Structures are given as C-alpha cells and as structure tokens.
C-alpha cells in the first residue's frame, strides 16, 4: 500500500475483522452494518467484504439481497471471489427452489433450479482450476442433482461422467461412478461403491450425501 492509503487500508481491515467476529457470534444485524462500512471505506478489502455481506444475508434469510450481492461479484477480477459468488448464489437458488416446492409452487421451484443449473455450469466452465478445489467438484455434484430434479437425465449423466473424468484419482470419481451405476439400474454396484467410499476421508459435500 502507498503510505497515504495505508491508514485507510488498516482501518478497513480492522472493521472487516470486527464484522467477521460479529457474524461468528450470530449478531447478524450489526455484522451487516459493519460490512457495509468496510465497503464504503474502500481500503482494498471491498470485494471480500461484499462476499461476506452476501453470505451474512444468506444466514439472515434475506435471500433477495444475498442474490443481489453474489450476482454483483460474478465478474470480479479476483478469481476465488467470483467462483465462490457463483457457487453460493446457485446454492441460494437451490434453497429457494426447495421452499417453493414445499409451498406447492412447482413453476417457481423450476425457475430457481434452472437458474442454479446455469450458475453451476458457468462455474464449471470458467473456473476449473485446481487451486479452487473442491469448488469445481462440488459444482459438478450439485449440477447433476439439479439436472435430476429437472428430469434432465442426459445432463445429470454428463455431469457425473465429467466429474469422473476430470478427477479420476479422487473420492468424487468414486461417488460419480456410484451415481452412474444407479442411473443404469446397477444397484448392487452402486451400493458397493458407496460402501467403499465411506471407508475413506471425505469432503463434507460427500459426507452430506
């Protein structure tokens, strides 16, 4: 930092730490206000603050504001921020799809699932980088599941096939093989592979499944 901007940068970082602490304490209203202060201050941490603000809106169930925040970061020049914004926006759409499904509004549920699918696909195409792992792998999993919900079996199959092909030596490939076996009706093979998978250390996105 230049000497004349260093104080503002240090001040912004201190406010960001405060906002993060408030969020960890689930004091979401003050956390939101603190993130807004950081964004207004500049100081070189605005993009991080915008991402954390959107995440806080998700925790506070202010989904429209969260989506607005994530969408504004899709083209951020900092790759991890753009990639995470895409993934987390898609996950919000999945949450909203489930809510609309429970509210007996299949049209709205479909709309949000289709948007989630679009954003997962965009992430996979634009950000396949190893340093972002496990984000691309998780995006493949989510894409396959959303495609299945939308009765797009070909797209689901392709997502699992790509996951197996791109990450052949990872547990994701084993999971993809199990899902492909299930799609083909090979239940015994699918069960065997899933049992084998449980014997290995897993990313939380696989543990949840």
Summarize the structure in words.
This protein has 209 residues and is mainly α. It has eleven helices and no strands. The protein has helices at residues 6-24, 28-41, 46-59, 63-71, 79-102, 106-126, 135-149, 153-166, 171-183, 187-198, 204-207. The radius of gyration is 20 Å and the shape is globular. The N and C termini lie far apart (45 Å).
Keywords:
single chain, 209 residues, mainly alpha, 11 helices, 0% strand, globular
Element layout with pairings:
Elements: H1 6-24, H2 28-41, H3 46-59, H4 63-71, H5 79-102, H6 106-126, H7 135-149, H8 153-166, H9 171-183, H10 187-198, H11 204-207
Q: What are the segments in which pLDDT stays under 50 over at least 5 consecutive residues?
A: 1-5
Strand content: under 5%
Question: Could you spell the SSE succession in H and E letters?
Answer: HHHHHHHHHHH
Number of helices: 11
Quick recap:
The chain is an all-alpha fold. It is built from eleven helices and no strands.
């Amino acid at each position: 930092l230049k000497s004349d901007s260093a104080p503002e940068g240090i001040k912004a970082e201190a406010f960001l730490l405060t906002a993060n602490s408030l969020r960890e304490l689930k004091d979401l209203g003050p956390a939101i206000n603190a993130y807004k202060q950081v964004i207004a201050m500049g100081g070189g941490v605005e993009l991080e603050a915008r991402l954390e603000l959107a995440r806080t809106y998700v925790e506070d169930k202010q989904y429209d504001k969260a989506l607005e925040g994530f969408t504004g970061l899709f083209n951020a020049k900092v790759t991890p921020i753009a990639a995470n914004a895409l993934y987390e926006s898609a996950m919000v759409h999945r949450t909203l799809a489930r809510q609309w499904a429970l509210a007996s509004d299949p049209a709205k549920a479909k709309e949000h699932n289709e948007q989630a699918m679009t954003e997962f696909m965009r992430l996979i195409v634009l950000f396949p980088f190893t340093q972002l792992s496990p984000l691309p792998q998780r995006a493949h999993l989510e894409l396959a599941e959303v495609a299945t919900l939308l009765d797009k079996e070909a797209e689901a199959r392709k997502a699992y096939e790509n996951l197996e092909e791109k990450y052949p030596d990872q547990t994701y490939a084993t999971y993809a093989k199990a899902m492909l076996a299930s799609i083909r009706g090979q239940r015994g093979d699918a069960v065997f592979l899933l049992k084998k998978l449980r014997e290995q250390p897993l990313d939380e996105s696989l543990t949840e499944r």
